[in-house]
Amino acid sequence: MAVNIYSLSIMFSILFLLTVIELVRKNKLQERYSLLWIFISIVFLVLSSTSGLLNHLAKILDIKNPPSLLFLLGLIYLIVYSLNTTVVVSKQNERITRLTQELSLLKQKMSNNK
Amino acid sequence: MKILIIIPAYNEETTIQKVIRHITLKMPEADILVVNDGSSDETSKRASQAGAMVVDLPYNLGIGGAMQTGYIFAKENDYDIAVQVDADGQHDPSYIKDLIRPLIDNTADVAVGSRYISKTGYRSSLFRRIGMVFFSFLVSLLTNQKFKDTTSGFRAVNKDVIHCFASHYPDDYPEVDVLVKLKKKNFRIVELPVQMQERQGGKSSITALRSLYYMVKVSLSLIIGALRSSEE
């Protein structure tokens, strides 16, 4: 197999997919956050291994160099996923604040009862 | 009428005792709760020495998170009125009675102490004044009610508003934001003239560098807030 953008993509996708699965297996990544990663690695795997499909899609979108479509998809995915991550961070931030408040109020109550 | 005075404090050891004593003098019937927002100095100790109840937050949550802690406390302990007073001595406790009167008479749900309604000898920097004029314009536009001093932290709220704040309160720079949110929920807000003093210690949390962030963040939050339905 020649080393080119397609073979590199295939190898990377497979490695990445395996890494994600391994992380979930070791409980280092929760299932719910792994879904999007698994999804994108499968999409990449399919697109890079069936260059016909990639070429076809590129043609429809008027992209001269089909591998550019891979880059575009990767980039879009990263942007979407980081938005998703900040949503998760916001939610956690809110929960941590609430926990902090409840904890402090509880401590105040306890010291009052002493 | 159970009244709670909430004082959010972050490194205010120089002024906190004076503020608490002054409040106790003017409002002996009210309980005082100091929310120590992760201070690294003696704020907490001095506040309890002065006779206030103190809640210590383990780290700095910011003014929004600290105030909300106070409102949750007010809700859990069934207070009828909560008054926010700054720990730096800017707010004169003599005006607390004026602020809570419309709430007791049930002519308003929220009373805001305003520096600008009457002549009060309060001067602030040019940049700050521009910001205030801008916010007062924006808030007046969004709420159809004239507001002079939208950034004042000297305010009293009744039980319904306490409950509302306990479940949701903006995390930073909450003063301007909540006016619009409360108006959307059809709470009645009045502005009353108060005299404000120069801060007696500590530094304003709003430095020159943060001013821009403040303006952008609050404006954005107001505009997006206007797009929300009141149920949310």
Describe the structure.
Chain A has 114 residues and is mostly helical. Chain A has helices at 5-25, 31-49, 51-60, 67-113. Chain A is elongated and about 75 Å long. Chain A has 4 helices and no strands. Chain B has 232 residues and is α/β, with parallel strands linked by helices. Chain B is 43% helix and 16% strand. Chain B has helices at 16-26, 43-49, 63-76, 96-104, 126-143, 159-167, 174-184, 208-227, and strands at 3-9, 31-37, 53-57, 81-84, 110-114, 155-158, 189-193. Chain B has a 7-stranded mixed beta sheet with strand order 3-2-1-4-6-5-7, sandwiched between helices. In chain B, α2 links the parallel β2 and β3. In chain B, α5 packs parallel to α7 and α5 (126-143) runs parallel beside α8 (208-227). Chain B is globular. The chains are: A mainly alpha (114), B alpha/beta (232).
Architecture blueprint of SSEs:
The complex is a heterodimer of chains A (114) and B (232).
Chain A: H1 5-25, H2 31-49, H3 51-60, H4 67-113
Helix pairs in contact in A: 1-2, 2-4, 3-4
Chain B: E1 3-9, H1 16-26, E2 31-37, H2 43-49, E3 53-57, H3 63-76, E4 81-84, H4 96-104, E5 110-114, H5 126-143, E6 155-158, H6 159-167, H7 174-184, E7 189-193, H8 208-227
Parallel strand pairs in B: 1-2, 1-4, 2-3, 5-7
Antiparallel strand pairs in B: 4-6, 5-6
Helix pairs in contact in B: 3-6, 5-7, 5-8, 7-8
